[in-house]
Specification:
Elements (H helix, E strand, L loop, with lengths): L1 E7 L3 E8 L6 E6 L4 H10 L2 E7 L5 H18 L6
Parallel strand pairs: 3-4
Antiparallel strand pairs: 1-2, 2-3
Length: 83
């Protein structure tokens, strides 16, 4: 398992938790995403499939970012966006 901190906004971090499987099909969970594009790019760089988004904040903006992130992820899996 690998945990990768990803800078977000000015003074925060998201974390990508990657389960590296022996068959080369790694899966990942993103934690506290504020900038979806940075997280998606990091997952792609590590050849990991994003499977979950977790949030540890109760602030509305975090929930909105998580919803945006999910929409980017869904469109990305359908091949309709370059996020």
């Amino acid at each position: 398992m690998k945990v990768i901190p990803i800078p977000q906004l000015v003074d925060n971090y998201a974390y990508l938790i990657i389960d590296e499987r022996g068959d080369g099909k790694s899966i990942a969970a993103a934690v506290d995403v504020a900038d979806a594009s940075a997280v998606v790019a990091t997952a792609r760089a590590h050849r990991a499939t994003l499977a979950a988004v977790l949030t540890t904040h109760h602030h509305q903006y975090i929930i909105l970012y998580a919803l945006f992130f999910l929409s980017v992820l869904i469109r990305s899996r359908c091949g309709r966006c370059d996020a």
